[in-house]
Specification:
The complex is a heterodimer of chains A (365) and B (282). Chain A has 15 helices and two strands. Chain A is mainly alpha-helical and 365 residues long. Chain A has a domain of 248 residues: Orthogonal Bundle (ABC transporter involved in vitamin B12 uptake, BtuC). Chain A has a two-stranded antiparallel sheet. Chain A is globular, with a radius of gyration of 22 Å. The two termini of chain A are 44 Å apart. Chain B is an alpha/beta fold. The two termini of chain B are 20 Å apart. Chain B has ten helices and ten strands. At the A-B interface, helix 1, helix 8, helix 9, helix 10 and helix 15 of A face strand 2, helix 1, helix 2, helix 3 and helix 4 of B.
Chain lengths: 365, 282
């Protein structure tokens, strides 16, 4: 069955690739840039949904991890000697290593304490660029030199669409190819025993540990995978924005990623992609609508975050599991109703006893 | 009847032993000089009034509490700094009183988590979904389904635990422990919340397990304990006050004193000299 899972994921990847080609070839350079933005947000959100949705660790510092990937990319592309694929891999690897260190520390923390620690990361990392002004460009940041479009790539796209590849379209392709590869790997993990152990740790740490899962190792692994995604997302962001500066990696970026995965549905890759799409297109859509109904530029721009916030509040109120999560939950309930007679409990469940390892003798039976 | 020697007819291998275990929480003594052994294929019940130290004993046995004194030996090897996740690898499985099911995972996935120690592939195989990872998943799934089938829960494999009847959730919890194929099963109040009929069914399931493994059972329901246990150990105020065959324990004066407050003259009665413990539940 797991082999068919791989085939299914590869099939979906091919289908996604076809859609990407169709969309990028039929939209303008401006839209291409927006799709590139959606790609890097989607990659980072995919990693975050694994960490928070599958493993239950709340990170408020993924923007900082993206900064590490972005700055690594900017530095590696200064010489323009490494192939772009190698740059992306190195950027992701560097972030992975730093993520592993953070993950080891975070594995010892729980709930709000992890959030607090990663929040500190989100605040501190942009300051590093200011401290190392000469190497990292300080407040102005580093320019990112996007490599020329490889000949074979331009030929392949021309073969498919009879169109030339612009720089922004090339970056959008790089972003979406990165996203597709990332999502296939994350989906493989999610459907494997690794994903199962992550979910078990999320649902009940004590029961998971008793079942033989080393909690620390599972948590660190989830953080490392998530950091790798954030690093790759940061690398694609650097290519898209073409400048890497502290102002691009404020706490707002980390919180935006979190809202994206909450909107889409925690633990769902489809939800992460949907959240990234909302994050990318909703503000621009609202601004355009505001202008259409006669609002000023400023009013229209101010309307965008308001609508995004309202959308978030409505989703949390009406669909606490996120858009994709709620749809899936409803579908699952319907499936259960269709295939089983609902079994009423024959015994009243007693109240759950406090189950604290090492509880005091006073709480003994 | 006093604390007897080792059970007869067993070998030293495969024995789980707690020797002179002592645990204190601050100034409160939770366990004092408790020694117990569980022999292969033996069902040892641990009973005692509320506050007797049963949970602490259980937590010591599975590594959640490190004893201040004493040793834990399994298959002749002393276990030191035992972490709970290492239990499965040692062939020891435990259920939780609150079941601890993973509510957002299917019943099948719940049980497959328990089979994880039999997985043969690692992170790389899972990441790339290699064929060997596929084979491994299939093997774990078959193993989990076999255990669910044995416990009569196979038809619930695709359901989420919260939608199951309470007794069935108990079975799923047991299946997750059994799927690791343990040599020693630690059961923490497995019959709590079950009706008499369900408890009888559970008792027959439990008796069927004893051909394959030893069982340490902490349970309040005396009917179940008396019907399935080969031996019963009685704790009171952290001390082992009696141990023996069910019939012997049932009539032991110290046990009666601990549970019912019957005055006994023998000095082995529980410390504290309580006059009336009738409010304490069995």
């Amino acid at each position: 069955m797991a082999r068919s899972v791989l085939l299914r994921h590869l099939g979906l990847a091919v289908l996604g690739l076809v859609v990407v080609v169709l969309v990028l070839e039929s939209t303008s350079a401006f839209r291409n840039a927006q799709f590139a933005t959606m790609a890097y947000l989607g990659i980072a959100a995919g990693g975050l949904t694994v960490l928070t949705g599958l493993n239950g660790q709340l990170s408020l510092g993924h923007g900082a991890l993206m900064a590490i990937g972005a700055y690594t990319t900017a530095l590696l592309l200064q010489d323009q000697q490494l192939p772009l694929v190698a740059v992306l891999l190195v950027a992701s690897a560097v972030t992975t290593l730093i993520g592993a260190v953070i993950g080891v520390a975070a594995a010892r923390l729980h709930g709000p304490y992890i959030a607090g620690a990663t929040l500190a990361l989100a605040v501190a990392v942009p300051g590093v660029a200011l401290y190392f002004n000469d190497q990292l460009g300080g407040e102005q940041g580093l320019n990112v030199f996007v490599p020329d479009v490889p000949g074979w790539f331009a030929d392949a796209v021309y073969f498919l669409s009879a169109q030339d590849v612009s720089g922004s379209k090339y970056v959008a392709y790089v972003g979406w190819l990165s996203l597709i590869v990332t999502f296939v790997l994350l989906a493989n993990l999610s459907r494997s025993r690794v994903g199962r152990t992550w979910r078990a740790v999320r649902d009940d740490e004590v029961a998971a540990e008793i079942a033989g899962i080393p909690l620390g190792r599972a948590r660190v692994l989830a953080f490392v995978v998530s950091a790798a995604c954030a690093g790759l997302g940061g690398a694609v962001m650097a290519l898209t924005v073409r400048i890497t500066a502290p102002s691009g990696f404020t706490l707002t970026l980390s919180l935006s990623l979190l809202t994206a995965v909450v909107l889409g549905g925690l633990g769902s890759l489809t939800g992460a992609l949907l959240g990234a799409a909302l994050l990318t297109f909703l503000p621009q859509l609202v601004t355009s609508l505001g202008l259409d109904v006669g609002l000023s530029d400023l009013q229209s721009a101010q309307l965008a975050p308001l609508v995004y916030g309202l959308t978030l509040a409505l989703v949390i109120l009406l669909a606490p599991a996120g858009i994709v999560g709620s749809v899936r939950a409803r579908w699952r309930r319907q499936q259960e109703r269709a295939t089983h007679d609902y079994d009423l409990p024959t015994t009243t469940a007693p109240p759950s006893p406090a189950r604290t390892p090492g509880d005091e003798p006073g709480g003994d039976k | 009847m006093r604390i007897p020697a080792r059970p007869t007819g067993t070998t030293g291998e495969g024995r789980f032993e707690l020797s002179d275990v002592g645990v204190s929480f601050g100034g409160v003594v939770a366990l004092s000089e408790v020694s117990l052994e569980v022999a292969p294929r033996q069902v040892l019940g641990v009973i005692g009034p509320n506050g007797a130290g049963k949970t602490t004993l259980f937590n010591v046995a599975c590594g959640f509490v490190t004893p201040d004194r004493g040793t834990i030996r399994w298959r002749g090897v002393t276990l030191r700094r035992l972490r709970p996740h290492q239990l499965a690898g040692l062939g020891i499985a435990r259920t939780l009183q609150a079941m601890g099911l993973f509510d957002r995972m299917s019943v099948l996935d719940n049980v497959m988590v328990g089979a994880d120690r039999h997985a043969a592939t690692g992170f790389g195989s899972a990441l790339l979904a290699l064929p060997r990872s596929a084979r491994d998943e299939r093997r774990l799934r078959d193993r989990a389904m076999a255990v669910l089938d044995e416990l009569g829960a196979a038809s619930y494999a695709g359901r989420l635990p919260p939608s199951l009847p309470y007794a069935m959730r108990k079975r799923v919890s047991l299946a997750r422990a059994l799927v690791s194929n343990p040599d020693l099963l630690l059961l923490d109040e497995p019959a709590s919340g079950l009706s008499q009929g369900e408890m009888a069914e559970f008792g027959s399931v439990l008796r069927g397990l004893t051909e394959r493994m030893a069982v340490l059972l902490v349970e309040h329901h005396m009917d179940l304990v008396l019907s399935v246990c080969d031996e019963i150990a009685v704790l009171d105020f952290g001390r082992l006050i009696a141990r023996g065959a069910p019939d012997d324990v049932r009539s032991d004066p110290a046990v009666l004193a601990a549970y019912l407050g019957v005055e006994v003259r023998e000095g082995a009665a529980s410390p504290g000299g309580r006059e009336d413990n009738s409010a304490r539940s069995a």
